[in-house]
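Annotated sample (chain length 344).
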Amino acid sequence: MADKTNITFDDIAKYTGFSKTTISRYFNRPASLTDRNRKIIADALEQLGYRENKVARILARGQSDLIGVMLPDLYHHFYLDVLSRLLATYQEFGYKFIVFNGNQNESVERQVIDELLAYKIEGLIVLSHTIPSIELAKLPVPVVGIEREDLYIHSISTDNEKGGYEAAQLLDSRGCDVLLHVTSKETPNIHIPSHRRITGFLKYCSEHGSAHREYFMNFPHNYDGIEKHIKSVLAGIARDFPTQKKGIFLSSDNYAAVLVNQLVRQYGRLPDDYLIVGFDNSSVSRESVIPISTIGQQTEVMAREAVLLLRDEVRKMRSADAGSASEPVHRIIEPVVIERATTR
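Output written by the structure step:
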C-alpha cells in the first residue's frame, strides 16, 4: 500500500482498524483522541507514506492558516527585519505567510488585498501606510497594523515618543551644543506612530532648554534620492552650526547610515563634532562602517505580538461570536537605547 500514489482515509482506516470518523478526528480534532490512538495513526501515516492534500483540507475545513503580509517597500531594513521575525513564528503558531510589496502604490495595494482574499487568508498584517485603517477595518478578515496609522484596526507599535525622548537625552548627555532631528515628510501625519518620535524629541528639548532644530524632508524610498536629501541637510547643518558640537537624531537607521557615509567620504572619518543616533536597530545600523547608535525597536517581540493578536482575532472569527465587533487593541512595545560608535 505504501506504493499507492494517493492514500485515502479509507486506506488509513483499514490499516489501523479505526473508523473513518476516527481518522477524520485525528486531522480535525486531534485533542479528542487519546495519546495512544494518535500515535497509532501517526505511525500508520509514516508507514503508508501519506502526504496531506492541503488544498483539499482547506476546502473541507474552511480554514487555510494563511496570513497575508503587506509591506510598503523593500528598501528600509526595518520592514525586512519585521518580515524575517514574522516568518520565524511558523514553528510556534503554524501560520504560513503570503507576502506582497505594495511599493507605496494605493491601486497596487488594493489589487494585492483582493489577491490575498482570493487565497482565503484568515488575517492580514499591514506595515504599509497607504490605505487608511477605516478602509482596512471593513475587510472580511481581522487586520493587525505594525507601526502605521491604526485608529480603526488592531496594532503593534513601539513607544515612539519615549524613543524620541531617549534619543535627545543620549545626545545631550554626550555634551552636544545643539540637537537636530531629521525626519521624513514636510507635513507629518500625526496619526502615524513614528510622528511621536518628533513629539518625544521636542519634549526633551523643552524640558531641558536644549537648543534644537528639526528638518522635515520628503524622503523617497531609494538610496539615490535619500542621499541627495541627506547631502542637502548636511550642507545646511555645516553652514548654520560650524563650531558647535552637533547631535543629530534621524528617524530611521537607513537615513543615519547614509549620513554617516557622507561624513566619512567628506572627512575620511566621523568628525568629533558630529554625534549621530538612528531609530530601529535594523541590520544597517550594526553593519555600518561605523556602527550607529540607535533607538531599538524590538522587532522579535513586535512580530510575535502581532501574530498572537491576529491569532486571537482569528479564533473569534471562527467562534459563534464571529458577528460581534471587536474594539481595536493597541499594544505598545518599549524601545531600547543601543549605544555604538557614533555617540562615543
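Annotation: The chain has 14 helices and twelve strands.
Annotation: The mean pLDDT is 90.
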